[in-house]
Amino acid sequence: MNVNTSFPVESETSQRRPAISDWLKKRRWFLIFVLGPTLLAALYYGLIASDVYVSESRFVIKSPDEKRSQMSTLANLVQTTGLSGGQEQTNEVLTFVRSRDALRQLERVTDVRAKFASDNADALARWPTPFGSNSFESLFKYYGKRVEATFDSEGGTALIRVEAFAPRDAYEINLRLLDLSEALVNRLNDRAQETAITEAQSQVELASARARTARIALSQYRNSQSLIDPTRQAAGVLAIADTLIAERAGLQAQLETMQRITPQNPSIPTLRRRIQSLNGQIASQDSRVVGGQGGIASKLGGYEDLIVEQEFATQSLNAASAALVQARAEAQRQKFYLERVVDPNVPDEPMLPKRLLSVIVVLACALSLYFIGWMFMIGVLEHAPKD
Predict the structure, then answer these.
(1) Which of 6, 116, 250, 344 has its CA 20 to 30 A from that of 82?
(2) Per the record, GO CC terms (predicted)?
(3) Sheet of 337-342, strands arranged across
(4) What angle do CA 111, 113, 117 make, to 5 degrees?
């Protein structure tokens, strides 16, 4: 008698299918929200995600006057705490690297769009993104994800980190950004120097014009009044008058002696005539000094005013010239320069993506969200009203 043994096998198979179906049904949310994203992440990072190369460079901004010996104690304390003289300029450069201006200038010196849209990149990683556009704003957002500019407070250096899909592309973008940063520092130096020196130069020009005006006014006054130096001329006239007065005094004494001893001396009339002549000469000399509007004394006030103005203008010119020299020296001392500590490197192997770590992160996030949702549903069911 033949016995058909296929029935138990078919029965066992039919029993397994509902069991697997029930198991899948019970765990469908876990499979959808945890296993599904993890498998997709493993598929993407394992087979699709393109290699990303990273190029780094480091620099500092220094000033030739950072170590000057006349620093105060407070300045020394500030410098030892890491607030160097060029940190403010470093922050300005880092802000520039992260800005739209840097991207626009970068587009002029290299084809950054083509580098970010490389054929070596997968569709999700390259620019433009699947849901993005070809606009500059879209490029700028992508640029912010691929270019990092930060300050390393521990090492005291600024870091530029560039990600690209080819080693040479990452190196070239980093190198161009470093060149643009150095050019920015030079422009800031020129602007600061120009501002300080221009102001000092304008003061020198004003003082020069004032001194020139004073000299011209003094020359015109001398020509109009027919004199060179009233003070010296008045002194010369007074010296002549003093000589004549001394001579008159001698003759007056001689005349008095003759009149007392020999009243009939025939020389007495001659002496009297000489004394009268000296009186006229003395009066003439006095009138040259103090004789109304034509006298030297009437011209002395205007001359002294012009002399004072000329001396003051000359002193102002000297002070302005000294300030200009000092401004140039100070601008030179405060000049900053960018020093490359680490030049951009050409990476020889990709640094990103971290494939295994990325899959683990996706799994951890999915598990966290799943358990949060599961606990939330448990709480809702526990507090639900029972029929």
Answers:
(1) 344
(2) plasma membrane
(3) 147-152, 157-164, 53-62, 337-342
(4) 125
In tens, the pLDDT along 61-106 reads: 987 665 444 444 444 444 444 444 568 889 999 999 999 999 999 9
In this structure, the dihedral spanned by the alpha carbons of residues 180, 181, 185 and 191, taken in order and rounded to 10 degrees, is 50
| pTM for this model (two decimals) | 0.63
pLDDT in tens, 181-191: 999 999 988 88
> In which residue are the tokens 């639900």 written?
384
| Phi, psi torsion values for 74, nearest 5 degrees | -65, -40
In contact, 184 and 91? CB cutoff 8 Å? no
Question: Going by C-beta distance under 8 Å and a sequence separation of 6 or more, which residues neighbour residue 212?
Answer: none
Tokens of 327: 């401004």
285: CB partners within 8 A, 6+ apart: 237, 238, 240, 241, 244
Please state the separation of Cα 74 from the chain's center in Å.
23
